[in-house]
TrEMBL record:
UniProt entry tagged with the keyword Metal-binding: yes
InterPro entries with a match to the protein in the record: Hemerythrin-like_sf
Gene3D superfamilies: Hemerythrin-like
Gene Ontology MF terms in the entry: metal ion binding
Protein name: Uncharacterized protein
Source species of the chain: Streblomastix strix
Family classification: Belongs to the hemerythrin family.
């Protein structure tokens, strides 16, 4: 341990460090207070982004994502009201009126089979429990044009065949038609069992291969009305062929019979079409109203979410930045302005004695380099190197000044006071350099204010007095402007550095 102490003491002497030579409790307490004040300010300085802010930012992103999904929610709400309208019903009801005319025509013909007698077709009354047909017998206003009726039936029959292949067999789909997946299933066409149920008092039998389809009320809009249509599919082609052909030739029944059929079909078509249109428009209007209300609500929700994002993320971040700015400003008040210190130092550094000014200029430059390095957060090794050089240059400068005092026989009391202050300054500088090379920023910046003002009082006080005495004893004339003299001193010092 003794060897280590001797080694440390020898190293301190080499680098010009002075420790525990002079009692200096008041200054040391001031240094500790400055360090504690800076450390306290550092502890109050919040980080730029904390975990809380990260969580709030993530929450804000999720809120924005939720707000972005609202249009999709609106679209779902709007389409939900129309989801029960089968594409096939909309197609048959709005694309081609002839199709419904033919279907309603057959409903009227079968429902009134007893009044329309066709010897070649077996006629049985339709089961009243499963039909929705309406009979109208007043046909006096209908034009008696059998050719037009025949043409209409022919076109309707062709259209029916095409529509059947599209809806029931999923084939021959014309361009622009809407496919209907709900009806792309096989039908028991011309099945005797289906025919027996349709024209008897027996229980209803589903005409589809998959009988569970008849148990699903959402299969098609207004399902119970279309049960009658489903039952007629099995015999529709047979009836149409009978009306259009007889012994292989085109044939029509009596004009009166067709007028009756056309009148009832026309009335039923209008009634069914109006009913369907009314219900569809009511549903459409309901969907539009719902969409409008939901849209308004969602807009309010979006605004609320955006405001929530503002409060959750933006405002707390702004408050934190304000806190950081205020605390940083307080730290700036604790740390003196380097530019101001530099200007004040330059005004007072000049004495007119070159031996004085050149050495003190070196100490000034080293002090400024140390302050700049610390304020710019340079590498720790660089700051340490500069402080070691400052200690050595201070020792050299003070030793040179003490030799000059001896040369000119400086007053003993003043010389003793001056050299005692040299020792005290070197001791303080050693303590300050130890703190400036500490790895704790609070300690470094706490010691910096005392470091910047360490040499000022000495340079402008005792050094000024001795410089005047030295100039008087050696006969130096000091009468040039201060700025020019300082420039000359700095220029001479720079030239010496270059010569080295």
């Amino acid at each position: 341990a003794a060897d280590e102490d001797e080694e440390d003491e020898s190293e301190d002497k080499l680098r010009g460090a002075v420790r525990n030579q002079v009692s200096d409790h008041e200054w040391e307490e001031a240094l500790d207070a400055s360090i504690q004040k800076t450390a306290s300010a550092y502890t109050r300085l919040p980080s730029a982004v904390s975990k809380n802010h990260i969580l709030r930012i993530i929450m804000a992103v999720l809120v924005f994502a939720l707000a972005g999904m609202i249009p999709a929610i609106l679209l779902s709400v709007f389409s939900y009201g129309l989801s029960e309208f089968s594409a096939s019903v909309m197609l048959s009801g709005f694309r081609e009126a002839q199709f419904l005319q033919v279907l309603l025509f057959m409903l009227q013909e079968v429902a009134n089979a007893g009044e329309l007698e066709f010897s070649t077709i077996d006629q049985e009354p339709l089961n009243p429990d499963i039909t929705t047909s309406v009979v109208i017998k007043d046909f006096s206003h209908v034009k008696k044009d059998a050719v037009y009726i025949k043409s209409l039936l022919q076109k309707s029959f062709d259209f029916y065949n095409l529509l059947s292949s599209v809806l029931l067999e999923s084939s021959n789909v014309p361009d622009g038609w809407t496919p209907d997946s709900k009806l792309s299933i096989d039908v028991k066409r011309a099945d005797p069992e289906v025919a027996f149920v349709a024209f008897s008092k027996g229980p209803y039998q589903c005409p589809f291969d998959n009988e569970t389809l008849c148990e699903n009320p959402n299969r098609i809009y207004n399902y119970h009305t279309y049960v009658g249509f489903d039952l007629l599919n099995a015999h529709f082609e047979k009836y149409m062929k009978f009306f259009l052909t007889q012994d292989g030739k085109p044939q029509l029944a009596s004009t009166e019979e067709f007028l009756f059929i056309l009148t009832s079909a026309n009335f039923d078509l209008r009634k069914q079409y109006d009913q369907f249109t009314t219900e569809f428009l009511a549903r459409m209007n309901g969907s539009v109203n719902t969409f409008t209300i939901v849209n308004l609500v969602c807009m309010i929700v979006q605004v609320v979410l955006y405001i929530l994002t503002l409060f959750l993320s933006v405002l707390p971040l702004k408050a934190t930045l304000n806190t950081i700015t205020n605390t940083t400003n307080k730290l700036h008040t604790l740390i003196p302005n380097n530019a101001q210190y530099s200007a004040e130092f330059e005004e007072e550094i000049w004495t007119g004695v070159h031996q004085f000014d050149a050495g003190r200029k070196k100490l000034y430059d080293l002090s400024m380099l140390i302050v700049d390095s610390i304020q710019q957060f340079m590498a720790h090794t660089e700051v340490h190197s500069l402080t070691m050089e400052l200690l050595q240059q201070t020792k050299i400068q003070f030793t040179a000044e003490e030799k000059m005092m001896t040369q000119v026989s400086f007053t003993e009391d003043l010389m003793k006071k001056h050299t005692s202050e040299h020792l005290l300054l070197r001791q303080r500088m050693t303590t300050l350099c130890d703190n400036l090379t500490n790895r704790d920023d609070a300690i470094v910046f706490g010691a910096l204010p005392l470091f910047q003002g360490l040499l000022s009082n000495h340079f402008t006080g005792l050094d000024k007095d001795f410089a005047k005495f030295f100039a008087k004893e050696t006969g130096l004339e000091i009468d040039r402007p201060v700025d020019d003299q300082i420039a000359d001193v700095f220029a001479i010092d720079e030239q010496e550095e270059m010569n080295r």
